Amino acid sequence: MPAITFIHPDGKSDRVETSGGESVMQAATRHGLDGILAECGGNAMCATCHVYVDESWLARLPAVAGDEDALLDGTAAERRPNSRLSCQIAITPELDGLVLKLPERQV
Amino acid sequence: MTVSGTPASTGPASVPHLDVDPFDMTFFADPYPTHQRLREAGPVVYLDKWNVYGVARYAEVHAVLNDPATFCSSRGVGLSDFKKETPWRPPSLILEADPPAHTRTRAVLSKVLSPTVMKQVRDRFAAAAEERVDALIERRSFDAIADLAEAYPLSIFPDALGLKAEGREHLIPYASVVFNAFGPPNELRQQAIARSAPHQAYVAEQCQRDNLSPGGFGACIHAQADEGAITATEAPLLVRSLLSAGLDTTVNGIGAAVYCLARFPDQWQRLRDDLTLARNAFEEAVRFESPVQTFFRTTTREVELSGATIGEGEKVLMFLAAANRDPRRWDQPDSYDITRRTSGHVGFGSGIHMCVGQLVARLEGEVMLTALARRIAKIEITGEPKRRFNNTLRGLDSLPVTITPA
User: Which chain A residues contact residue B351 at CB under 8 A?
Assistant: First the structure.
């Protein structure tokens, strides 16, 4: 199963083994990862599962949808060109090795 | 066995039948043993009292919420089936609608209540919470419902909406009617509707563009009509949604949080030691108390749900509160734990109809609990809490407390 690496603001990292049919957010919360809140539970409503995608991976992710784009304007930490909501990234085998940086804060 | 009329033998016969009335006063007084019975009886149950299916486990509640094509909202999210009965008021364009109609109206309210907008109102909401706590510290003893859980949202939300000062006393009674009306035709519902005329008249009037001050949420909804996102006749009904669901819910949410923190002093201490837990302390109170206890859906086709076959046109009652304490989903579900990972609870629903005002609720809850915990060392309950009865909402009518300033 694809594994994802989350890099915390302090530089420490967590490697999360994912299972099929889940989003990056779901994998993170299932592993009790600090730094992903997901207050709305994955309904694309709260912007508290914000991540910065490692530049080398950016082009390999599905495009940002309209809902997500609007929500990203409201993230607690600064929005950057590589900002995504992790609930909107479905895990596929091609994403094995994905590297995501966590923002300073989610609220 | 008879095959005519409802329930048909292939449907309800295959699921456990329970004789409980989840809209009865004795149930409201202590719903937890019955919630457990409902969960343990099976993944899908049938309630003979109102001829409806029920789901009380997390998995099934979540599944129903996330399949709006099968479990629709346009036939009403209360017991009344809009296909068979005339709704007591014009249906909501968002709550009581299905895609694609719902998609358009939902987008408008999502935009008006977005994370970006919350950033703009945050300081104002926080300052009002501080002011409220100042006043409560002066008094020391007060009713945590009237003087805190109601007074605080009333001091910010109607202004944020852009409502006129006069007539605001109709707001909480109107919301009370709305949430009672989702229930069955019991005394609570009948009396609420019978007395609703003045509240309805007030609300209808306030939803008009001319009565909403510029810059408020209400005016922002009307501005969406200028942009072509909705029509000018739809705008007032969408404003009505905020008047229906934006105040009493947060009153009960904040009331639940204060009631929890007053009952569980260890959690209060944890919050005082780390104020960054305030937002989750509120969220956990929404899970633990579930201010919105239930909603219905109506099946659009015959469907199999966890082994049970439910026919077309059947009402399905979702016990959100029972799902939020389902031991299949939650560790120690009956503990109020402000450090719990609350993500995934269904206190705000889930899926396309998940509470569109959830960010407003969380913001109010967070800033209020932060202000309380920063300034107050102790909250003691000094009298018997009195429950307020409503077919959908769970909350208190009064909660006498005495506080000790920090």
Answer: 43
CB proximity A62 to B under 8 Å: no
Domain count for chain B: 1
Query: Chain B closest CA to A1's CA: distance in Å?
Result: 23
Looking at beta carbons, which residues of chain A come within 8 Å of B118?
74
Do B43 and B59 form a contact (C-beta atoms < 8 A)? yes
CATH number at residue A43: 3.10.20.30
**Coil, strand or helix: which one is B10?**
coil
* pLDDT per position as a tens digit, A38-56: 999 999 999 999 999 999 9
Residue B283 sits at the chain A interface (C-beta within 8 Å):
yes
Which structural domain, as residue segments, surrounds residue A90?
3-101
Look at A41 and B110 and tell me if their CB atoms are within 8 Å.
no
DSSP B316-371: EEEEHHHHTT-TTT-SSTTS--TTS--TT--TT--GGGS-TTHHHHHHHHHHHHHH
Inter-chain residue contact B358 with A47, CB threshold 8 Å: no
**Cα(A15)–Cα(B47) distance, integer angstroms:** 47
Rounded Cα distance, B15 and B10, in Å = 10
The CATH number that applies at residue B35 is: 1.10.630.10
The C-alpha atoms of residue B159 and residue A1 are separated, in whole angstroms, by 51
Q: pLDDT tens digits, residue range B269-296? A: 999 999 999 999 999 999 999 999 999 9
